[in-house]
Amino acid sequence: MAKTIQAIRGMNDCAPTESPLWQWVEDKVRNVLQSYGYSEVRMPIVESTPLFARAIGEVTDVVSKEMYTFWDNDEQLTLRPEGTAGCVRAAIEHGWIYNNEQRLWYMGPMFRHERPQKGRYRQFHQAGVEVFGIANPEIDAELILLTARLWKELGIDQHVSLQLNSIGSLEARKNYRSALVEFLQQHIDLLSDEEKERLEKNPLRILDSKNQALQEVLNGAPKLLDYLDEESRTHFAQLCTLLDEMGIAYEVNPKLVRGLDYYNKTVFEWVTSALGAQGTVCGGGRYDGLVEQLGGHATTGVGFAMGLERLVLLVQEVNQHIDLPRAVDIYVVHTGEGTTLPAFQLAEKLRTNLPHLRTMTHCSGGNFKKQFKRADKVGAKFALVIGESEAQNQQVVVKDLLGGEQQVLAQADVVDFLKTAF
Q: Residue 131 and residue 135: Cα distance in Å, rounded?
């Protein structure tokens, strides 16, 4: 027997029993985004490698360690590790944001080569939002309000909290970086080899170190908020005021910097303690220089991304009241000579007149007992039964599989009956 081939580690299948919850979560995300007037975009999964190196930063872990990169003839390509860079590239290439506001969203798979663990996989899925051409803090607030509304829709709002910070301008971060490096050099013995490497390349990332002893020392480190330029300070104050007025609770976390180089001013994360170590559910912020950095006209930007795997896990963990749609509503049972055609005709009539219902026709033969067993297995609410006499008399037996009652109807009356039954 041939050796079986298994999925690549960290790239998972979604079983038929799991997909209804995924669809439910994705529908909630899609509906909330559309209710705010955001438009969907779809970008390629594969992009030119320099796009991510320029946008994310060559010294970030994503670019230096985690990207799936390969050569296609003489061009180096990468499976997208995140969505913002590709969305900005598309917006520049097609002129969507030239002297124009855009509020966009996308959903799909991303790829990072890292150690798989609960809620973090090598192929993972994100929903993301990118807004271009609005410099005011009002749009930062709208994104936070949008996500807060989504948490309520998903039934997880009591299990997530908002962390907020401003990382200011490039010049402000440069000044802060010098002060932070000077501070960390006084505690060099606490730094791991990886953190010592970051001290040279990207010292702000040390602020979110998982080293508890180092975190205690960092409580006495210089605060980025003290180094903000006046414009960033004002922007952040206006954002906080608006969130206060809208009743959005948050914690200002001076150690929050996000992991990608393109951010400036506002950064935020929604976090949870319900999933163990993998606590970040959604993160984002402003990236006002990224469009110009990638060759477009100077255009402000702000956005966020959320991992759908973690959202699904969190919903499973804390929301016990999800009303998922059944896989099949109506199961059409038929057996005997001359019953196949009327069974198929009835099923197609139902799909035409009741498209919101899920109708399955039995196709694998067998007696009534076998077919009813199958109808129960797929979770149908009603079985519509056509035997030889029903076929001849243009009737159908309607059996309630949950309550057990059954009745005989003319086939012409079935649609009206089912309209009232669902």
A: 10
Q: What share of the chain is helix, strand, coil (3-state, %, to 5)?
A: 40, 20, 35
∠ CA 258-259-263, rounded to 5° = 60
User: What's the token pair of residue 102?
Assistant: 């855009």
Give tens-digit pLDDT for 342-379: 999 999 999 999 999 999 999 999 999 999 999 999 99
Structure tokens at 353: 């007149």
Residue tagged 């001013």 (tokens): 265
Q: Model's pTM, two decimal places?
A: 0.90
Question: Alpha-carbon distance 118 to 172, whole Å?
Answer: 36
Alpha-carbon distance of 27 to 127, in angstroms, equals 11
Sheet order of strands, 68-72 included: 46-48, 75-79, 68-72
- Decide if pLDDT at 219 tops 70: yes
Residues 246, 42 contacting (CB under 8 angstroms): no
Percent of the chain with pLDDT over 70: 99
Tokens 């690549």 — which residue? 8
**Tokens 């089912």 identify what position?**
418
- Backbone φ and ψ of 48, nearest 5°: -65, 130
In sequence order, the 6+-apart residues with CB closer than 8 A to the CB of 13 are 7
- Show the tokens assigned to 65: 């360690």
Q: What is the mean pLDDT of residues 234-240?
A: 97
Q: What does the alpha-carbon distance between residue 28 and residue 264 come to, in Å, rounded to a whole number? A: 29
